[in-house]
Structure to design on (486 residues):
């Protein structure tokens, strides 16, 4: 099969499987904004910000390290067993320590201890499936990967919808219904976390056979090599989580207490509208990362890497403009209360930031295949530093707009730095003229649609069709090659 066609096929399958869980919060956004006031959704966002940060610590770069060492290993069982034992040990240690100090943790982060307990179990269960999911990707089993992810989505979405909408609506019409005995009023946050917990538990059950069929050998030397490789990725992951979710925590602490959670709720809801770009970038990365490693020893892999980045920018440019054009339609579908719409001006900013992040992930191939992951940590720390500094300086003055601008500055700087260092350490012949052309035209048309014509849908559609026509005219030969069976 054409290697690029294979890449796009795997990207679609992995993307579907990865996108759907992340689409969960987006598809449920109308429900969340219907059930919760802005301050309630703000508190929900803060809880999941902490979960996202701790997820990075519990993964500690093992996913990427597993790919790196499994791909080139002669004894693949040793890589699997060492990775599984490492994750199992660290996860159980976290469970014991975190549960023992749950009251102290709840006090420090100002979150109800009941929510902290649910979060501890969710984090532990999610950590235990890191290696099994990585193994499915490394062995090119995208369909099984997708099925497990879809089951997770179905359980999480189903339970959430039932307890946040279906049962309450039934009880409004039939107050004496038998469902009254299983429904607890004002228990919404707990229902959300319980749904997540049950979905994570079923996911582990489906993937746990890898733990039982592996012949266990803990190779200390291999583990040290993996940890040496993974540690910079952990640092980069922490920095990434700061860029991605730490702004909610900073907003809570830097805004006046009486409006903080409400402002976070508005910001978080409108931030979700940039998810289309985030999901595309994530799907692309999930498909392309194993491809990067498996082709790192092929003849002239740099040329292939450059082509892949070209395609990413072209597709990303189309998505960027399309979301901007239809943003008011999307807003009315997914954000049900007008109180949240106040934060709409941040959408183009965070959408562009997500685009920068996607380009950065493509550019970061050089330090992953050359084992120079320390550069990834260094670049991500600079981005995190910008995020913290800009938020601290400007949140008191311009509120959540500062958080959006900080995200844009962070990901933009990371993209530029990765390109700069990559050019020196592992030159890849990117077609910068083409990349800059598509990116610039897309941004220019988006500015015209959003700001000049004030999001007029008809004008926006004309601009989008013009851009699509331009892409087709310039790329139709490439599209034919990818679609072909050769």
């Amino acid at each position: 099969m054409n290697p690029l066609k294979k890449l796009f096929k795997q990207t679609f399958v992995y993307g579907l499987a990865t996108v759907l869980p992340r689409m969960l919060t987006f598809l449920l956004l109308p429900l969340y904004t219907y059930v919760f006031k802005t301050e309630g959704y703000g508190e929900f966002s803060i809880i999941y910000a902490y979960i996202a940060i701790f997820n990075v610590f519990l993964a500690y770069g093992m996913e990427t390290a597993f790919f790196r060492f499994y791909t080139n290993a002669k004894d693949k069982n040793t890589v699997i067993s060492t990775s599984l034992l490492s994750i199992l040990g660290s996860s159980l240690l976290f469970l014991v320590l975190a549960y023992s100090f749950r009251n102290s943790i709840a006090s420090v982060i100002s979150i109800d201890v009941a929510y902290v307990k649910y979060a501890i179990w969710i984090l532990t269960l999610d950590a235990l499936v890191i290696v099994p999911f990585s193994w499915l990707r490394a062995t090119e089993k995208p369909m099984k990967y997708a099925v497990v992810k879809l089951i997770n989505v179905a359980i999480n979405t189903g339970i959430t919808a039932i307890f946040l909408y279906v049962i309450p609506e039934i009880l409004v019409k039939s107050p004496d219904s038998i469902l009254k005995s299983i429904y607890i009023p004002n228990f919404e946050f707990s229902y959300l976390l319980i749904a997540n917990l049950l979905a994570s538990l079923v996911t582990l059950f489906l993937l746990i056979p890898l733990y039982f069929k592996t012949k266990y050998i803990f190779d200390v030397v291999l583990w040290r090599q993996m940890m040496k490789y993974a540690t910079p990725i952990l640092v980069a992951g922490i920095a990434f989580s700061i860029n991605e979710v730490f702004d909610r925590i900073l907003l809570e602490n830097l805004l006046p207490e009486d409006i903080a959670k409400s402002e976070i709720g508005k910001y978080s809801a409108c931030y979700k509208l940039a998810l289309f770009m985030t999901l595309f970038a994530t799907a692309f990365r999930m498909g392309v990362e194993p491809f990067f490693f498996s082709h790192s020893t092929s003849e002239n892999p740099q040329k292939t890497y450059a082509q892949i980045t070209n395609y990413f920018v072209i597709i990303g440019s189309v998505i960027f403009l399309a979301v901007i054009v239809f943003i008011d339609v999307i807003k009315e579908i997914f954000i049900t209360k007008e109180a949240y719409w106040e934060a709409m001006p941040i959408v183009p900013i965070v959408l562009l930031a997500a685009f920068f992040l996607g380009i950065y992930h493509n550019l970061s191939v050089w330090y992953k295949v050359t084992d120079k992951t320390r550069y990834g940590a260094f670049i991500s720390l600079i981005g995190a530093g910008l995020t913290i500094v800009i938020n601290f300086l400007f949140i008191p003055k311009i509120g959540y707009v500062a958080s959006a601008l900080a995200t844009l500055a962070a990901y933009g700087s990371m993209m530029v730095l990765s390109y700069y260092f990559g050019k020196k350490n592992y030159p890849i012949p990117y077609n910068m003229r083409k990349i800059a052309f598509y990116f610039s035209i897309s941004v220019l048309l988006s500015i015209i649609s959003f700001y000049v014509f004030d999001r007029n849908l008809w004008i926006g559609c004309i601009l989008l069709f013009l851009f699509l026509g331009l892409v087709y005219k310039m790329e139709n030969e490439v599209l034919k090659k990818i679609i072909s069976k050769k």
